[in-house]
Amino acid sequence: MTLRFLLWLPVFLLLLLLLLLRVDPGCEAGIQENRAGSGPPLADRGSEPQVWPVGMVLKGSSEALCPPPSLELRPSCNKSQPSPPLGSGSQPHDGVITEDKEPVKYGELIVLGHNGSLSNGDKGRRRSRLALYKRPKANGVRPDVIHNVSTPLVSKALSNKSQHSISYTLSRSHSVIVEYTHDINTDMFQIGRSTESMIDFVVTDTAGGSSGHGGGAAGEGGGGGQSAQSTISRYACRIMCERSAPYTARIYAAGFDSSKNIFLGERAAKWRTSDGLMDGLTTNGVLVMHPAGEFVSEPAPGVWREISVCGNVFALRETRSAQQRGKLVDNESNTLQDGSLIDLCGATLLWRTPAGLRHIPTLKQLESLRQELNAARPQCPVGFNTLAFPSLAQREIVDKKQPWVYVNCGHVHGYHNWGYRKEKGPSSPGGTAPAGTGDRECPMCRRVGPYVPLWLGCEGGLYLDAGPPTHAFCPCGHVCSEKTVVGWSQIPLPHGTHAFHAACPFCGTWLTGEQGHVKLIFQGPVD
């Protein structure tokens, strides 16, 4: 009996186990349903990004400061808009340009003193003209949090390369750091001498002034090379453009460096504003002049002002780098308008809006004007040889048929090597001077003055209209419309620390004479 019981015992145990298994699958299914409702298994969650609810910030985490330094400045600061999953590119403010939609142009920056291109050619971000378009993704920033810290903690606070900030050093033991957060409504463009990737427009010193002369200034007057002792800041200024109409552009002094910081040292001009915020000026300053009227219809110069780091407008300092700021100008703003001039202490930029660019001549139109001038067959009144303006691409080599002008009277001739007044210029063998130097006596009216070749202005963005090229700047000989020469001859451009002088916008040469320009007198064909 005992042996029989032992033989059947495994069978009973097996049946009991099967009975229990028929009940447990239901419980196991319930457990699996609960796990599915709470998300993927814990073993699988490590490979998926954690998406926290909008507005939730973990205590003690780096996300307590907005924006999170570990993220790429996503719009998590705006609590009214949910944050998209990481890696998603379908944000509504991305401004992705489709094939059937033209890109939005904010405006164009044109460096004065370069007649269409740098002397060694436009290359990448180093060029004479740059168009600012709406970015695929907003990269603007705005002030967020202010910290009062001791100086030893400044380096630690500025070490976060994902956080834009401006540091104001008040003393050896006290600094104020203003943190900036991502702004989904603006695009930021930075300008400066540095060739680092954060600079959108690389600008170098423009050679010009009183030494420029003749056609050579068109190619040589704005060297693309970097000056040995440049006065332009590596991070000179930044322009913030609103991504929605009317696409307002505003300028601010100083730009963020590779660590996304702006550092104003102890000697820099800075102060605390009435509302408890901070502001300051850069070493050589960023000057801006808005036109008094419409730049195209009623060109008239305004007043030069200085722009601060926070975009406030001030009267000029006594000298360019003085530590005492000028008086605050409340009724003016840092908003750029068509014809606004930006001086970086070494280079001057012109801002043209899309509306203003519609009035300027294109390269095709300038070429048509050149052909019309040559079709009239102007002749030298002495040699009776036909004159012809060279092509727009030929800006450095003087052509044998190129017209020359006596800038004091406007009579146009062909080139000749006589009439040089030896006593008024540098001595040279044979009593003659090199082309484009010294004073000559006009054989038509006997007036003595510079004798230079004529060059068409090739940078259409510097024109005020598309009128016929009937006038030339003195003494460089750049030819353009009457409205253009009259307008630019009234604008004083900064030079040095506190000097201002009108200059040719195509080459940077200081203007001379009573008006700074002359009407050209062509001799028609004899036949």
UniProtKB/TrEMBL annotation:
Hydrolase as UniProt keyword: no
Name under which the protein is recorded: Pellino E3 ubiquitin protein ligase family member 3
Residues of the Pellino RING domain: 373-527
Origin superkingdom: Eukaryota
GO biological process entries: protein K63-linked ubiquitination; regulation of Toll signaling pathway
Pfam families: Pellino_FHA (PF04710), Pellino_RING (PF20723)
Region Disordered: start-end pairs: 69-98
Organism: Cyprinodon variegatus (Sheepshead minnow)
Family classification: Belongs to the pellino family.
Keyword tags: Phosphoprotein, Signal
InterPro entries the record matches: Pellino_fam, Pellino_FHA, Pellino_RING
Keyword Signal (UniProt): yes
N-terminal signal peptide: 1-29
A GO molecular-function annotation: ubiquitin protein ligase activity
Domain Pellino FHA: 99-368
Coiled-coil region list: none
